[in-house]
Specification:
Blueprint lengths: L2 H14 L4 H16 L14 E4 L3 H13 L5 E4 L4 E3 L3 H6 L9 E3 H4 L5 E3 L3 E5 L4 E4 L4 E3 L2 E4 L4 E2 L17 E2 L4 H17 L1 E6 L10 H16 L5 E6 L12 H10 L4 E2 L2 E7 L4 E10 L2 E10 L2 E3 L4 E2 L2 H5 L30 E3 L12 H19 L12 E8 L2 E7 L21 H18 L6
Parallel strand pairs: 1-2, 1-9, 2-5, 9-20, 11-18, 12-13, 12-18, 13-14
Antiparallel strand pairs: 3-4, 6-7, 7-8, 10-19, 15-16, 16-17, 21-22
Helix pairs in contact: 1-11, 2-11, 3-10, 6-7
Bound molecules: flavin-adenine dinucleotide (FAD).
The site of flavin-adenine dinucleotide has 37 residues, from helix 3, helix 4, helix 10 and strand 21.
Amino acid sequence: MNKHVFTDLEKEINRIGHLNRRDFMKLAAIVGLTFSSAQESKAASNARGKIVIIGGGAAGLSMAVRLKKRLKNPDITLIDPSDRQFYQPGFTLIASGVYEPNDVWKKQEDCVPSGIKWLKDSVAAVDPVWNQVSTVNNGKIPYDFLVLTPGLVLNWDKVEGFSYDRLGQGNAHCIYDFEGAQKTWKALQEFAKTGGHGVYTDTYTKHKCGGAPKKICLLTEHYARKQGTRDRLDLDYFTAEKALYDVPYYTPRLLEIYNERNVPIHLNTRLKGIDLERKQAHFEQIETRGDEKVVTPIVEDYDFLHFTPPMSAPRFVSEAGLSWTEGKLAADGWVMVDQETLIHKKYPNIVSLGDVAGIPTSKTSAAVRKQVPIAVDNLISIMEGKEPTKRYDGYAACPIVTDYGHVLLCEFNYAKEPETSFPFTLLDTSRELWPAWLLKVYVLKPLYFYGMLKGLA
Ligand SMILES: Cc1cc2nc3c(=O)[nH]c(=O)nc-3n(C[C@H](O)[C@H](O)[C@H](O)COP(=O)(O)OP(=O)(O)OC[C@H]3O[C@@H](n4cnc5c(N)ncnc54)[C@H](O)[C@@H]3O)c2cc1C
């Protein structure tokens, strides 16, 4: 195992808090098992062809490093404009004061694997018929095989009365953004002091880490309790969905937690707009009565708002004709891939995974970690002129932080059945756990930077 993992762990333990010997041993076991369970060696392939990867985040970089290892003659170009590689799951922990902002990012130049050509540019268009992508500054780049991993877009403007430059104004916050997470932490501390009405929302589109809005709500509640000011706060959680959570194994306990913490849940209610001056959140409650859809407008005064913007695939994806054209995944342009092979349904030289992929699972880096080895094997099979045979079962994980010290470790597949990873199979994961908090706070970040992005986990 990489020595950086332990250096990083040591740093976090020293900074966040001392662990007793028993907890440290637990932590070491989790790290060791997580890394060792992912090790596998595969024969190198003679397949040739120019591979272009669009987007070097969790999925793109993991694909790059593994493809490079597996191909004897790799010819891989990665296109990504970003200077920094963010460990986005850490944004929740910034917003709750557990991590410092500088804990969650590294320079992109230190993350791009050697031997990969990195074009620091943005893709503006893809022509899947002529096998080329158009970049903003470097013209057209041809490819034989395309890895489509640009993540997703946060559509701030789709919230009426809001735009990205207004993030934080009117005490309206969002942890889906690096700066936004930092502003949230400041505002959350202030809110716990002054008290008032806290309003929390998700959104009506598919969004990355569906647990994030729930986590920040529960963390605010616990933070205020720790400060002794909980009685000053009224908290409400609004979800656009018909249920708080859609994986039945975990839902009962999550509902219980909201109930125990006295945070009412409002179903089928989507955020439409925000009046930042008046501090009012405008919702639409959508109910079906018989054949009729009834829309009821609701206005909530708030003192602190955490909201989630609608999300979609980047526009160039649908403009290239790469998106689903019918079904639930069509509206927001998600890529039309086979949900098991991750190969594009119309263009077999394109593989897509991560947040942009149009597959019915949760958009998380935990899902990416399981998708990558499948996508690599299947792409290599296609490069070798064979059928793709590896199958992804929809595995995703969402560690819902329920308080400072506990996490409901939700792991599941397409069938919405729990799919718990070892060593957590030994525990009752239908309830929030302290070892899962250790995993979330200490293990997953080094696992990301030194495991996943290095092709080792
Ligand atoms: C607040 C928050 C909490 C989260 N919590 C969790 C969690 O607890 N557990 C978990 O597993 N996951 C969590 N996630 C989700 C996780 O971070 C994402 O699912 C994961 O990063 C998706 O990987 P990706 O490679 O598809 O996209 P990203 O990692 O977002 O990478 C996309 C890359 O594409 C690049 N790009 C974009 N457009 C273009 C273009 N036009 N041309 C070239 N490059 C482009 C970007 O610069 C970026 O580098 C969380 C995310 C957030 C924001």
